[in-house]
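Input record, target 12 of the design panel.
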């Protein structure tokens, strides 16, 4: 198992738009492509409260490449993402990490 941690750094005041996009659009595409989420978090205390952190679970990098690339290439997803940013961009930058559990991890 591999866990992908993604951190979306939003432009000021744009976190609510990102949360809405995940709730109303993105999670439906995750389901369509079999992308299994572990959880989503906003930052309560930290360097910025304009971030969304989430984790998804993959069997291996090949599964991630196949499913993520299909999701990213979906014409309907692309159109809906563009529409949510018609007025102005939402995400300033994305950090991406691939994590593997230790032998003593509760999640393996």
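The sequence produced for target 12 reads:
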């Amino acid at each position: 198992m591999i866990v992908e941690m993604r951190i979306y750094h939003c432009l000021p005041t744009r976190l609510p738009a990102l949360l809405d996009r995940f709730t109303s659009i993105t999670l439906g595409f995750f389901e369509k492509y079999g992308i299994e989420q572990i959880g989503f978090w906003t930052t309560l205390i930290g360097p910025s409260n304009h971030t969304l952190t989430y984790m998804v679970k993959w069997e291996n990098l090949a599964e991630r490449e196949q499913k993520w690339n299909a999701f990213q290439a979906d014409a309907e997803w692309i159109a809906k993402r563009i529409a949510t940013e018609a007025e102005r961009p939402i995400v300033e930058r994305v950090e991406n990490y691939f994590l593997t559990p230790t032998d003593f991890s509760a999640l393996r």
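Residues 15-33 form the longest helix (19 residues).
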